[in-house]
Fold this sequence. Notes:
By secondary structure, this protein is mainly alpha-helical. The chain contains 4 helices and no strands. It is globular, with a radius of gyration of 12 Å. Residues 82-88 have low confidence and may be disordered.
Amino acid sequence: MLYQEYYVFQFDSAMIYLDKGITLAEKTANTYYYNNNLIHKAELLSIGGLYGEAIETMSLVDTTALDNTQVRLLLLYLPYSHLLGRLL
């Protein structure tokens, strides 16, 4: 994904590409890419220390439409989001 080229160096640019990906996925009704972009956006937000926003973003993921890779990514972040939610 394009955001991966930016997220370490340019938080803002990576966020723009993720938001564009989310918008495009919504317009084309592509649930796979919508969820994928949301999961990566939550990851980026948490890397940037924006834990509340990361938790909110993760709550938008349609968990009924995830493939195996997306489930693994989500399971990786869910325990942390639960703990962070208690801290906020």
